[in-house]
Amino acid sequence: MNGKKALYVFTAVVCFLPVITSSGSLLLGLAFALIVGNPFKEQAGRWGGYLLKASVIGLGFGINMHVLIKAGQANIGTTTIFVLSVLALGLLLGRLLGIDRLTGLLVAVGTAICGGSAIAAVGSVMKANPSQLSMATGVVFLLNAVALFVFPAMGHALGLTQEQFGTWAAIAIHDTSSVVGASARYGDTALHVASITKMLRILWIIPVSLLLVVGFAENRESFKIPMFIVGFVLASCLYSFVPAIQPLAKPLYTAAKQTMVVSLFLIGSNLSLSSLKAVGGAVLLQAVLLWVVVSISALLFVMYV
Fold it and tell me: CA distances (Å), 230 to each of 97, 143, 193, 203, 236, in order?
């Protein structure tokens, strides 16, 4: 193992330490990618995704199913209006900016539901090509990185409560990793609220993908429900209904939060100048405009409704 690889492995291991925050690990990953260069580029992307999904499943051991169901019943109307409105606005912006329909749809879905996971799920249904997928995921990744730093700072500046920030982050930030990362920086209560609210958004992958399957019948066999969602719900059920799991629940939940930190390092280290250049100006403008509208609307909602 050469020096670069050894340094990379050492840095990844260090990210398991509780002193390393989500934003710190992402910064380490970005710095490694742009300054040193990622010696495990293919493996880092794959394992970063695995660890992220595992961490989301582990977070289920800190979410009571009764609370999840109650939150779902209370927020189903709000969530429905939000998802459908963002999808409609995203498609309209894409059309006005002259972006091809599928790329515009992928950006809209990624913003409305859960970033890269939604893009991957819908992309498989719609048979998106690598260029379309890379542009949509690239711009979402960039905005997620910005959100990790901007949202906690804005939350403190505006004096948001833990509950307000958790709800805002879950509504306005694309990927689960960044929602968890930003809310974890804000506090444990914010993380708890954000995890529940985000899961309600993620579940929209299923009906949206099914609707697209109906519209594009030739792609029915390609649709797959993201298994980490199933795992999260299963973990929450075990935590809620199986008393024997209680002694293990807290360690698993804690381990999941730190695993998420490591996954952010791996994901951040996979960024490259070529991936930045792959994001077209029109696609970036669509994503930024849509994100700004969503963020401001969600902020006004949590502050005044």
Answer: 37, 27, 19, 10, 10
The pTM assigned to this predicted structure is 0.68
| The predicted structure's pLDDT at residue 217 | 46
Contact between 104 and 286 (Cβ < 8 Å): yes
In degrees and rounded to multiples of 5, residue 97 shows phi and psi of: -90, 0
- The CA distances from residue 71 to 62, 75, 87, 206, 301, in Å, are 15, 6, 22, 19, 16
Mean pLDDT across 163-182: 88
- Are 184 and 53 a contacting pair, CB within 8 Å? no
Amino acid at 49: G
CA dihedral of residues 252, 244, 187, 298 (deg, nearest 10): 100
Give percent of the chain above pLDDT 70: 85
Highest mean pLDDT (candidates 18-32, 106-120, 127-141, 209-223):
106-120
Closest CA to 249 of 58, 53, 52, 56: 58
Residue 215: how many CB atoms within 10 A of its CB? 10
The ranges assigned to domains in the chain are 61-260+273-304
Structure tokens at 149: 């730093």
**What is the rounded distance in angstroms from the CA atom of residue 269 to the CA atom of residue 46?**
12
